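Protocol step 4 of 6: structure prediction from sequence.
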Amino acid sequence: MKKFKKILTTLVLVPTLFLPNFAFAQEDTSPAVTEVKVEESVSNNAENQNTLDKKIEESKEIKSKEKTPKIKSPSFSPWASVDLNDVQFMGLYPASSFFEGKDFRKAVTLEDANTAYKLAKEKIESRGLKTGGDFTFKDLTRLETLESISKLLNDDKFAVKNLKESKIFFGQEDEEYLNSKIPLEEVLALYNRATKKTLQDNDKVAKGFFYEIENKNNKVYMLGSIHIGKSSMYPIDQNIINSLKDSDKIFMEIDLTNQEKLKEMQEKMYYKDGGSLKNDLGEELFARVANIFKDFGMTEDQVNKLKPWAIYNSLSVDPKGEVATATYGIESYFLALSLLNNLELGELESVDFQSDLLSNFDKESYISMIKNLTDEIEKNGYKNINAGLNEMLSAWEIGNKDKMISLLSSDGDEASEKFNESLLSERDKNMAKKIDAMLKEDGENTYFILVGAAHLVPENSVTGILKDMGYEVLEK
């Protein structure tokens, strides 16, 4: 069976495990993932036209870059949580606005209305679909916003009832309500639903690598992810989202809500025994590595405290995030959805397991890989690395399995092959065993599995092992 030789950590390990909090970390302008507890409730507010029949009871940030005094939490109505989450990931409103203490409950301004319409229009047109062109706002009422939605969808037969039938608008149709000023959160919710619907209806949504297995009364959905991403990867096919909502529990590689364990993992990246990166790499290679990190705002002393495994995995992804970032990754999105929908979260592995896997890989191989990576960055910067990542992101978006396999199977040096083998072989077997156990449970259970695409796409991965066990693995 063919060996897969060049596996990027972006497809096998959750990014939190290889991205330390660098000194050059810029102000976060990416989606914030929040933990929420949701309970069913009934809204008595007739004017709450976007009610999702859910009340957010508790919210706390669980994953973000290092905070600065500049970052202030936004204010918004509980019903808007899901829509605003989508808006951030889809790039339908400047993400930086969510960190400026903005009150989304206030009446929309002309500037915000124009920005929201422009970004929704660009999103739809970027998929090769036609819109009705630009729209001129005047009075910023609900009715005018609904008219802009029809323009956005290139529908010249505007009618409020059509938008209600399309499940874009859920509000009243009386004149007073429609002619009142509309809050920013409602504007964004309407554009989010309209954009998602037109992209879904025209099959212009991200497909990923999605599988389904059934046994007895049990069902397991499996989605192969990329651990970092960008806004063009959203929205994701609604069929995948519906499968998540139909599930009893979601299993990721690790529990990203366990802050204590994540902190312990971060601590493992640094020398504690008097060692140093300079001693391990040698003065010449260390100087070259330190020079690369200098461009990102890190001092030589800061670099010298990081162990080789932290250095290698950090250098493997462009620290500037010009192509993709962890906060736009598929895990971040599904974690947010799971928490917003009060879905129980489990893990197939653990933070300790993944951090130990990285830290215990032999040092000499890391040094060899760091040298090769340093050679590449010094010669070409992140141009080729980013180009390869872009290809992977594109393959994921359209669900091109053959392209992804081709990218995964390109040749690597001996150290890289050894590293990749440690990231996949035994882990795939263990994941398959756990999924096999889920499928054999008593009762009727539905589980959603979210792991790196490299664990599912190749024939000798988890999917292949499950097939060898006798299961029929359906590609959705």
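Step 5 (inspection) to follow. Confidence is low (pLDDT under 50) at residues 1-7, 15-30, 32-69.
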